[in-house]
């Protein structure tokens, strides 16, 4: 039997057996950080453009910055480091307002990138620019980061084994006849 024909047979059997291509996800705790962090940019630092301020980060972007990878590699929780308690929320510092909890990918950035102008902002406005990693307002609430790990669903393995077993039986019958 040619390799090509064997491959086609295996693919057909797997599809026939109903192998799911969808993956479940598991989450591994990688660390936490306080929104107000000594390593975070200071919003009023003259090293930044006074017109825009420093870059702002979503909670997922902050996790990627701190722990490596990309924002889509993470889910965030405000509860604790237990994967069973993930709430997909993050703590943010809103310029001129203080701490607030939003979705992990909440993005309200001044000019689409920044935490806000150093010289002016609207005080007490929860809709101002926000960042999950900035040294302002002493927001010490913790964000907990979990790395997403794709895990095949258990029934996928069972269906794959059933499909391969069926191929073996069909082939054995064909060659024994």
Give the tally of structural domains. 2
Number of strands: 6
Count every helix, treating DSSP H or I runs of 4 or more residues as helices.
3
In percent, how helical is the residue content? 25-40%
| Spatial shape | elongated
**Spatial order of the strands in the main sheet?**
1-6-2
Characterize the structure shown:
The radius of gyration is 25 Å and the shape is elongated. The model is unreliable at 17-23 (pLDDT under 50). It starts with a helix and ends with a helix. The protein is α+β, with helices and mostly antiparallel strands and 177 residues long. It has 2 domains: 1-22 and 153-177, no CATH class; 23-152, no CATH class. A 3-stranded antiparallel sheet has the order 1-6-2. The protein has helices at 3-16, 59-67, 154-176; strands at 23-34, 74-77, 89-94, 98-103, 130-131, 142-152. It is 26% helix and 23% strand. A hairpin with a 3-residue loop joins strand 3 and strand 4 (98-103).
């Amino acid at each position: 039997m040619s390799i090509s024909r064997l491959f086609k047979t295996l693919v057909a059997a797997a599809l026939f057996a109903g192998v799911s291509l969808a993956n479940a996800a598991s989450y591994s705790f990688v660390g936490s950080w306080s929104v107000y962090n000594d390593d975070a940019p200071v919003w009023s630092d003259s090293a930044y453009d006074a017109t825009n301020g420093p870059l702002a980060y979503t909670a997922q972007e902050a996790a990627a910055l701190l722990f490596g990878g990309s924002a889509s590699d993470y889910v965030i929780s405000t509860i604790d480091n237990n994967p069973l308690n993930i709430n997909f929320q993050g703590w943010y510092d809103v310029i001129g307002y203080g701490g607030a909890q939003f979705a992990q990918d909440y993005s309200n950035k001044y000019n689409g990138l920044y935490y806000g102008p150093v010289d002016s902002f609207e005080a007490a406005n929860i809709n101002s620019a926000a960042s999950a990693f900035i040294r302002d307002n002493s927001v010490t609430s913790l964000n907990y980061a979990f790395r997403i790990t794709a895990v095949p669903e258990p029934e996928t393995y069972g269906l794959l084994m059933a499909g391969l077993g069926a191929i073996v039986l069909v082939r054995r019958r064909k060659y024994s006849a």
